Automatic annotation (TrEMBL):
EC class: oxidoreductase
Keyword Lyase recorded: no
Protein name, per record: lytic cellulose monooxygenase (C4-dehydrogenating)
InterPro entries on file: AA9, AA9_LPMO
Keywords: Carbohydrate metabolism, Cellulose degradation, Copper, Disulfide bond, Metal-binding, Monooxygenase, Oxidoreductase, Polysaccharide degradation, Secreted, Signal
Subcellular location: Secreted
E.C. code: 1.14.99.56
Annotated source species: Orbilia oligospora
């Protein structure tokens, strides 16, 4: 009895350290779990994907799960996921989109083929004593690019836990796909396109890394670069400021720019003008 109790407590402890993304957040409200998100195989265990060659890398979908609904969201609006329970491991957060092909729907398509493009990724804070990422989030958000065409998409959220990534296959990937129908938008197709599986290798520097010792001096997220934004006008306007130049060269979209601006005290007085100008040109 004592052994059984100990095993149950250990299992509960391990599950609590892991997480899922069951609820879609849009229009200022959090949906019911799995209402607009493809139910994942780890809905009970909360366990990660560790084999990057597995088809689970697409959406980690439970093949026996009921079909989810598709949410209407406006291009340029903020969409998020509820985290169950919270992001507790160190590592990057990434978001991808895949446009549903003609003749299919977000509900009956699993995202096969070279169809995924990255729209956002965060980067670590590196000091002489540590490398770290934001943690403890119970909700995570991304802005749907305002330039992409209207239509149905899969929105893939991915958090890569690197606490045991010192050997190949040690990185833990927590992911899910929301089903969205983008309204409004523009005509710019997402690029570059990659497939899951296929976009990552177990030996990629962003997946095979000891984050504890020696302390890394740099880190590169796996996969493609995030979808490029329209920077040309802003480059001409703001590149006289070296801090802006640094932010533009290291950022791919409004979330990264917003984060970078707010992290630099010397740019606080210019942040409203800077962000407003960016948003008008995307």
């Amino acid at each position: 009895m004592q052994l059984t109790t100990a095993v149950l407590l250990l299992s509960a402890s391990l599950a609590s350290a892991h997480y899922t993304f069951p609820g879609l957040i849009f229009g200022g409200a959090v949906s019911a779990d799995w209402q607009y998100v493809k139910m994942t195989t780890n809905k009970y265990s909360h366990g990660p994907v560790t084999d990057v060659t597995s088809s689970d890398m697409r959406c980690y979908k439970d093949p026996a799960a009921p079909i989810a609904s598709t949410a209407n969201v406006a291009a340029g609006s903020q969409v998020g996921f509820r985290v169950d329970t919270s992001i507790s491991h160190p590592g990057p957060l990434l978001f991808y989109l895949a446009k549903v092909p003609s003749g299919r729907t977000a509900a009956n398509w699993d995202g096969d083929g070279a169809v995924w493009f990255k729209i956002w990724e965060n980067r670590p804070t590196i000091t002489s004593s540590s490398i770290s990422w934001p943690s403890g989030q119970t909700q995570v958000f991304v802005t749907i690019p305002s330039c992409i065409p209207a239509g149905e998409y899969l929105l893939r959220v991915e958090h890569i836990a690197l606490h045991s990534a010192g050997s190949a296959g040690g990185a833990q990937l927590y992911l899910a796909c929301g089903q969205i129908n983008v309204t409004g938008g523009g005509s710019k197709a997402g690029t570059p396109l990659v497939s899951f599986p296929g976009a990552y290798k177990a030996t990629d520097p962003g997946l095979l890394i000891n984050i504890y010792w020696p302390i890394p001096t740099s880190y590169t997220n796996p996969g493609p670069k995030a979808m490029a934004a329209k920077f040309s006008k802003l480059k001409r306007t703001y590149f006289g400021n070296i801090n802006y130049h640094t932010i533009y060269s290291q950022s791919h979209n409004i979330q990264q720019i917003r984060y970078a601006v707010l992290q630099q005290d010397q740019l606080q007085s210019n942040s409203s003008k800077y962000l407003s100008a960016y948003e008008k040109n995307t």
